[in-house]
């Protein structure tokens, strides 16, 4: 390889010392949860940063998905993707909803709108796509189908914090968008999540559902759940938000360097150039094709052996797990693109304080692999 990469951005990452003043305020206020001051501050700050009208914070992204389905009273069947983290479909099962899987686009690995219409039945009530790796779905085509068949659209936007298209935040599309603020995400609160909605009435219902259905102290109006974010997590979110732009810029630089250094390696394909999208560079996925000297799994293990830890997001497909594989829509012949991608995908490490030497080591290692007998 050529010269060592040089990253321009030097983000100041939050430290324990930065967090101590927040902890002191929580301790002094004795307000630990139940919509305390940091909770409200973070909701307001996120609405402004993300360019959305209303946001409801949750203790994690899975509870946000579960509650989004409850908030819109979704029943019957929901069309979704098998190429995602298991929480996407688990949220459907927990609500007594039947997932119906359709294949993904070979370019984006997002749900393929051309496959959706044929999967609609009289029991279909919604579509739940995933903005995979933070790259937007084909929003216009999905919404057109939903409008034609009077279906709701709930986006699993776990990867999509801060992502924009030509119309602004992609979180403003569909009926609801559910976010994850897990520790592995671009923006995190250690554990956390949120639902983005478009009107005050829906936000009120969501906020009631995440607090057991309470209205005041003595009235319960819905079978809700305990999904409230604590003041500790909200405070961490406020701290993280201060450096998020620099963190994303650093990820952008790492993404560009990866692409440059992997561009001419036979059998390695880098996914999802940002194009007209303002991306968040939350993942760096590559496809390890048949022209590469070793298999994806051999490369995965070889990197782990030198203490580099890529992830096979998403392998296996959701449709291959025991609770889903008996569904007619889960058959592998119905999902050839997703099946092939799950056997080739490898997400390389990317994080704001990644050292240039680490990236160089990874790309040199990938370039140097030889076929084994």
Automatic annotation (TrEMBL):
On the tree of life, the source organism's domain of life is: Bacteria
InterPro entries per record:
DegT/StrS_aminotransferase, PyrdxlP-dep_Trfase, PyrdxlP-dep_Trfase_major
Which keywords label this protein? Aminotransferase, Pyridoxal phosphate, Transferase
Question: Which Pfam families is this protein grouped with?
Answer: DegT_DnrJ_EryC1
Q: How would you classify this enzyme at the top EC level? A: transferase
Q: In the Enzyme Commission scheme, what number(s) does this protein have?
A: 2.6.1.-
Q: Does the keyword Transferase apply?
A: yes
**Gene Ontology MF terms:** transaminase activity
Please state which protein family the record places this protein in. Answer: Belongs to the DegT/DnrJ/EryC1 family.
Q: What is this protein called?
A: DegT/DnrJ/EryC1/StrS family aminotransferase
The beginning of the lineage is: Bacteria, Pseudomonadati, Pseudomonadota, Betaproteobacteria, Rhodocyclales
């Amino acid at each position: 390889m050529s010269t060592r990469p040089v990253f321009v951005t030097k983000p100041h990452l939050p430290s324990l010392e930065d967090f101590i003043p927040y902890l002191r305020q929580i301790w002094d206020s004795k307000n630990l949860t139940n919509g305390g001051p940091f909770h409200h501050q973070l909701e307001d700050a996120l609405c402004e940063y993300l360019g959305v009208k209303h946001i409801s914070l949750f203790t994690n992204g899975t509870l946000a998905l579960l509650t989004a389905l409850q908030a819109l009273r979704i029943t019957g069947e929901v069309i979704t993707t098998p190429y995602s983290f298991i929480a996407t479909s688990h949220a459907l099962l927990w609500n007594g909803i039947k997932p119906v899987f359709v294949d993904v686009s070979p370019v984006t690995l997002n749900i393929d709108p051309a496959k959706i219409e044929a999967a609609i039945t009289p029991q279909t009530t919604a579509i739940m796509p995933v903005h995979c790796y933070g790259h937007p779905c084909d929003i216009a085509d999905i919404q057109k189908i939903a409008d034609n068949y009077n279906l709701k659209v709930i986006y699993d936007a776990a990867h999509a914090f801060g992502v924009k298209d030509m119309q602004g935040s992609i979180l403003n599309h569909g009926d609801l968008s559910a976010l994850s603020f897990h520790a592995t995400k671009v923006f995190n609160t250690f554990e956390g999540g949120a639902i983005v909605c478009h009107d005050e009435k829906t936000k009120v219902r969501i906020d009631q559902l995440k607090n057991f259905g309470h209205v005041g102290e003595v009235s319960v109006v819905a079978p809700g759940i305990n999904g409230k974010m604590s003041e500790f997590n909200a405070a961490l979110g406020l701290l993280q938000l201060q450096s998020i732009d620099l963190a994303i810029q650093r990820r952008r630089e790492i993404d560009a360097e990866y692409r440059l250094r992997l561009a001419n390696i036979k059998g390695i394909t880098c996914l999802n150039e940002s194009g007209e999208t303002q991306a968040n560079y939350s993942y760096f996925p590559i496809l390890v094709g048949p022209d590469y000297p070793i298999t994806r799994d051999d490369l995965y293990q070889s990197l782990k052996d030198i203490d580099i830890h890529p992830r096979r997001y998403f392998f296996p497909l959701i449709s291959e797990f025991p609770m889903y594989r008996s569904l007619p829509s889960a058959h592998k012949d119905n999902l050839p693109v997703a099946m092939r991608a799950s056997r080739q995908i490898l997400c390389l490490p990317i994080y704001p304080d990644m050292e240039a030497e680490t990236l160089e080591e990874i790309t040199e290692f990938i370039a140097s692999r030889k076929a084994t007998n």
